[in-house]
Design a protein that fits this description.
alpha+beta; 2 domains; two-stranded parallel ribbon; 10 strands; efflux transmembrane transporter activity
Length: 478
């Protein structure tokens, strides 16, 4: 047993180490966020509530059946149910019943409530999908930001290695008397500046990783990291599609429009439900009840010894007296419990019709409120479409601008590389000073960093545009 526990411990410990050393891919981050994000969980609760509302509507078609039972004791001055005499006593009474009722017609409100619940369920599902899209894009943007920061660190480190090589060569030339000592100081200052930039860039990577981990609700910040890989520009062909076509697809596919459309249909259904209150309501009911008492019952105890017979009349004509046995009664034990229930049971059933005539204008006012809500929902749908159109235009312009910025950054990088190579050649033969060489190095580093930034910005904005075009978040390629 001890060996088994030790084996289980080391297996668990090894699993934890693997989990901590795990490097997350973009797809894994998105999937994890979709499973654990609090906002998504809240939206999922809304879908569950919508499901409950649907079953509420279904339940309105089912008869209501309720049973009741009570057993009570009364103590004090009360009338004896057997003798009719007031006396101080304790009595026990039991009663039970079953009641069933069902709505036969209520202006079709039950049927329309069921339709409304299905609409609410669909709207909740659309809201959930919209939330998933938003969270996925947010995670993707945070992930790409981490990649950019990491690439930036690599660039600065690579440039720093070149600077260190130049520093070593400059030291040799200064010692040989080919370069002034001021050039050596300039190169050393450049190397120190790059070391400082490396530290700042590494801190930026750490901060961006922590921000991504917080988005994913991962607490182990120290061991959280992502897969360090380069992403190509995929999906640039979307810019060949007209913005009008993208807007048309967005209005058909985007969940924010579907949510607004469902809310409008729900508001219309609320008007129908409110108008149903103008119509009569017809219901049916059935009731079975019985009772039992612990009070004693009157029973015959035999002839009265003092007057065994009593006169009850006489025969007309003969005047003959008619007598009957004069019995006396006494209070005996109550009948058995189940026998009383059987003797005292009864049923009642029938139908009930309610016709509304005047209810303080409540029905009319509810209809008016519902009609106003329809107009509000229509305005919200129109505004949603306008906002979506503006967002698509903005996303399209942003993607085009990001493409131009990326292309310009590539051109600038190429120019700075040539300038750097030229400055390196001139510096090697002593035709330029260390300051000009350091400036060329700094300009190249900035140009390379701008290419990376523009690239990932372009990739993200392409994905936003693809999402508006109707590409599912799971099908977006990075």
């Amino acid at each position: 047993m001890k060996k088994i526990l030790l084996s289980a411990f080391f297996l668990s410990f090894g699993y934890l180490l693997n989990a901590q050393d795990k490097e997350w891919t973009l797809q894994e981050c998105i999937e994890y966020a979709l499973e654990n994000n609090i906002s998504i969980k809240q939206s999922q609760l809304e879908t569950e509530l919508a499901e409950v509302e649907k079953y509420d509507a279904i339940g309105n078609f089912i008869p209501s059946i309720n049973a009741s039972a009570s057993n009570s004791w009364n103590t004090g001055l009360t009338q004896n149910v057997t003798t009719g005499i007031l006396q101080t006593q304790t009595t026990r009474n039991f009663s039970a019943g079953v009641t069933a009722s069902m709505t036969l017609f209520d202006g079709l409100r039950n049927f329309k409530e069921l339709q409304r619940s299905k609409m609410s369920q669909l709207a909740a599902q659309y809201s959930l999908e919209l939330m998933k899209d938003d969270i996925s894009l947010f995670v993707a943007n945070s992930y790409l930001q981490v990649l950019f920061n990491k690439e930036n660190v690599k660039l600065i480190q690579a440039q720093h290695e070149v600077t260190l090589e130049q520093l070593e060569r400059t030291e040799e030339l200064v010692e040989a008397g080919s370069l002034p000592s001021g050039d050596l100081l300039e190169i050393r200052a450049t190397a120190a500046n790059e070391e400082q930039r490396i530290i700042v860039a590494q801190n930026t990577v750490r901060i961006s990783l922590i921000a991504l981990a917080q988005t994913l609700l991962i607490k182990d910040y120290e061991n959280f990291d992502i897969v360090d890989r380069d992403y190509d520009v995929i999906g640039a062909e979307i810019l060949g599609t007209s913005v009008e076509q993208i807007i048309e697809n967005a209005e058909e596919e985007r969940y924010e429009v579907r949510v607004a459309e469902q809310n409008r249909e729900i508001a219309k259904k609320d008007v129908e439900i409110a108008r149903g209150a103008y119509l009569p309501t017809l219901g049916a009911f059935f009731n079975y009840n019985t009772r039992e008492s612990g009070a004693g019952r009157l029973r015959a105890a035999g002839l009265d010894p003092d007057e065994p017979y009593r006169q009850i009349g006489f025969v007309q004509g003969t005047e003959e007296i008619v007598v009957a046995p004069n019995t006396v009664t006494e209070i005996g034990n109550p009948l058995p419990f189940f026998e009383q229930l059987q003797m005292n049971d009864g049923v009642s059933y029938g139908i009930q019709l309610n016709i509304p005539f005047l209810n303080g204008f409540s029905v009319r006012n509810n209809v008016k409120r519902s009609e106003i809500n329809v107009k509000r929902a229509e305005y919200e749908l129109e505004q949603t479409r306008l906002d979506l159109e503006a967002d698509v235009y903005q996303a399209y312009v942003d993607a085009e601008g990001a493409l131009k910025a990326y292309e310009a950054a590539l051109v600038a990088q190429n120019a700075q590389e040539q300038a750097y190579n030229y400055a390196t050649e001139r510096y090697s033969v002593g035709l330029t000073n260390a300051f000009d060489f350091s400036q060329a190095t700094f300009n190249l580093s900035n140009a390379q960093s701008e290419v990376i930034r523009a690239k990932y910005d372009y990739i993200f904005k392409l994905k936003v545009l693809e999402l508006y075009f109707g590409v599912p978040i799971a099908n977006l390629k990075f």
